[in-house]
């Protein structure tokens, strides 16, 4: 068994030995605590870390603001294009309604269609291919029984010479109905009735290509013609 000896080669008492061991451990602990405190109190580089965090935060805020601005610009552009298309389609509708000559074609159950429009079409889908309808054709085919008379045109509008304007596409239709409309409250004997459908497609006046807006307005019109009886 080894013993701790003094300079005089005499063994140390147990109490003295334990005290020196304890003092050595306490001294070692104090040194470690001092080193830990020095490490914790060392603030070199903290400003760099704070600056990097601020740069990251400000960059994220800038990216979010830029994305939001871009979205708002696109949204306002889409709204402008849709508004242009709507009022262009509405102008085509009003221009047709303003002239009674646009309703010259007619239908009679005994004599059939009358008028110099393009021709009679039936419910066959092929007969609708030449007309640029935006809405489903099945909705239109439900408006007549067997046949209708159709014609397509682009109304002309007076405008300054420097203004570029894409005219709406307007399709006029007279359908094979001649009965009195329900709930109108007029005599079915004193009048005959012609049923028309006006379909107007307006276009965005600025944007072109896939981003341009289109709007379709469809209106049903019944013309009452006195029979004199």
Descriptive overview:
The protein has 229 residues and is an alpha+beta fold. It has one domain (61-226). Helices cover 37% and strands 22% of the residues. Strands 3-4-5-6-7 form a five-stranded antiparallel beta sheet. A hairpin with a 3-residue loop joins strand 1 (106-108) and strand 2 (112-114). The chain is rod-shaped, with a radius of gyration of 45 Å. The chain starts with 13 loop residues before the first helix and ends with a strand.
Write the SSE topology.
Layout: H1 14-41, H2 46-97, E1 106-108, E2 112-114, E3 119-122, H3 137-141, E4 147-153, E5 169-175, E6 191-203, E7 214-226
Antiparallel strand pairs: 1-2, 3-4, 4-5, 5-6, 6-7
Features:
22% strand, alpha+beta, 5-stranded antiparallel beta sheet
What is the averaged pLDDT score?
A: 76
Find the count of extended strands (DSSP E, 2+ residues).
Answer: 7
Helix content: 25-40%
Please report which band the strand proportion falls in: under 5%, 5-15%, 15-25%, 25-35%, 35-45% or over 45%.
15-25%
Q: State the helix count.
A: 3
Spans of at least 5 consecutive residues whose pLDDT stays below 50 are: none
Order of helices and strands: HHEEEHEEEE
Radius of gyration: 45 Å
Assign the structural class, choosing from mainly alpha, mainly beta, alpha/beta, alpha+beta, or little secondary structure.
alpha+beta
Largest sheet: 5 strands, antiparallel
The oligomeric state is single chain
């Amino acid at each position: 068994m080894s013993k701790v000896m003094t300079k005089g080669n005499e063994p140390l008492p147990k109490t003295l030995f334990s005290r020196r061991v304890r003092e050595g451990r306490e001294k070692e602990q104090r040194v470690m605590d001092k080193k830990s405190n020095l490490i914790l109190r060392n603030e070199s580089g903290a400003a760099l870390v704070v600056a990097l965090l601020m740069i990251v935060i400000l960059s994220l805020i800038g990216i979010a603001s830029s994305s939001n601005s871009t979205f708002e610009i696109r949204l306002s552009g889409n709204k402008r294009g849709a508004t242009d298309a709507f009022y262009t389609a509405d102008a085509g509708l009003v221009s047709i309604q303003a002239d009674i000559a646009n309703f010259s074609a007619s239908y009679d159950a005994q004599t059939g269609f009358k008028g110099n429009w393009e021709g009679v079409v039936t419910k066959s889908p092929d007969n609708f291919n030449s007309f640029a309808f935006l809405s489903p054709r099945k909705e239109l085919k439900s408006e007549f029984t067997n046949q209708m008379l159709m014609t397509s045109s682009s109304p002309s509008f007076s405008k300054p010479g420097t203004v570029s304007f894409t005219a709406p596409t307007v399709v006029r239709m007279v359908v094979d109905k001649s009965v009195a409309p329900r709930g109108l409250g007029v005599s079915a004997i004193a009048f005959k009735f012609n049923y028309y459908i006006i379909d107007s497609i307006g276009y965005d006046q600025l944007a072109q290509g896939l981003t341009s807006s289109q709007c379709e307005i469809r209106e049903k019109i019944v013309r009452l013609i006195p029979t004199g009886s």
